[in-house]
Amino acid sequence: MDRAKTSSAEESIGSDFLQLDIRSAPPGGLADWLAGQLRAAVADGRLPVGGRLPASRVLAAELRVSRGVVTEAYQRLIDDGHAAGRGRAGTVIVAAPVLPPSPSAAVSPAKVITAMPGAEVFDAVRAAPARIDLTPGVPDLTAFPRAAWLRAERAVLDELEPSHFGYGDPRGAPSMRLAVSRWLARNRGIRVDPGEIIVVAGVAQALSLLGQVLRQHGVPAVAVEDPGSLGARQHLQHCGLATPPVPVDDDGVQVAALAAPAVLLTPAHQFPTGVVLGGSRRRELLRWASSGGIVLEDDYDAEHRYDRAPVPALRSMLPEVCYTGSVSKLLAPALRVGWLLAPPRFFGDLVAAKRFADLGNAVLAQLVLARLMETGELERQLRVVRSRHRRRRDAMIRALSASLPSAVVHGAAAGLHLTVTFDFDVDDVEVASAALGEGVKVQPLSWHRQLPGRPGLVLGYAARTATEIEEGVAVLGRLVGA
């Protein structure tokens, strides 16, 4: 009788949830085992995005473990970005890794990662399935402040006049332009009247509008940093502008090499090297601008800094700078909200170009974002993501030290990506293509060069967990053989 009772009790150990059997856990590693089981269930779809995990006390009782084991496992999923605590709603799955494609559906990596990328290359890269996406330029999208956004949206809708649903000013909603002027004054040291601001659909549209207007003003070319953003270069070229390269070194762009009438810069955190435009170079650039040169400033990644003091925007020192920024890296690229400041000689034509492009950005998103800026929610969001991004940057640095010790790491003090270069002969396009074939997305540094230079890779870390970063970099280390 006692033997029968013991057998029955042993058979009942476990949970109907995911058919978890505690007897398969290694001794002394219950939280590790449970976190691994949950991650696997998220990856294969048994725990879908939006699904809710059992209450920790319930699962602990079913597994006959302490509640602390379950809460620790849940916390690891939250730290990885796969889950989020939603108060009374419990712990909810918010993100899942992309599974590798089936062989029949897979696109050849060699057709996606090519030595001569065309205009469609970034669309192709985004569409290519991968287990671990380490491409640069994407923040932690699981950190989007949904609750704060919903609160702000409800408040805006409660106060919204019917007239706001009509056609508005192509420069943007007045409250948005006011909020941007205050945000730039607080965070970037820029003093600007709200009437001088144009709300745009991200930096990409700002570059397209600037390219169009500069052509109208007889400007044939805009010099670009080298290495520098392939995407920005493509936007300018689409406007019919030449993009002569200007070398970048440890102090930023080499101003003495400027020959074009205009230049596009990322002075606060140069893409992709991460260097800051040095003080002497800034003074040299201001002299160049005062003699008629046109400066386009993309304030790329300025707010995402970890180990260095804030760097003032060029626009704070010279009002003639054409300045652009956005919330794509702070909130989400999908919002398509940014801003453009330009001197009077270009401003009217830029407003006209914006009017005929789309009659202005969608107003509701502007009003919600303006409220987040004015209530301090956006600063709070910046503090949250800065801390999380720092931890993931540290995880990538550790992974590179372990798996790619021969690589030279650039740009660690700020931003959402690291660039690594190699002192030995390696085809970075072949490495990136082979990595995609193994389910890891990265960008070859050569994509962002027009001049000869050392091969390398551009690696985004903000949108990935520490575990994914470690696994992805290990793949790269094996492929490079470093």
Characterize this entry briefly.
This protein is α/β, with parallel strands linked by helices.
Taking all Cα atoms into account, the compactness measure Rg is: 25 Å
* Helix residue percentage: 40-55%
Tally of separate helices = 16
Overall mean confidence score, pLDDT: 91
| Terminal CA distance | 64 Å
**Strand order, largest beta sheet:** 4-11-10-9-8-5-6-7
The largest pleated sheet is described as:
8 strands, mixed
- Strand coverage percent: 5-15%
State the total count of DSSP E strands. Answer: 16
Can you put this structure into words, describing what you see?
- The chain has 482 residues and is an alpha/beta fold.
- Helix content is 42%, strand content 12%.
- The protein contains 16 helices and 16 strands.
- The strands form four sheets. Strands 4-11-10-9-8-5-6-7 form an eight-stranded mixed β-sheet, with helices on both faces. The protein has a four-stranded antiparallel β-sheet with strand order 12-13-16-15. The protein has a two-stranded antiparallel ribbon with strand order 1-2.
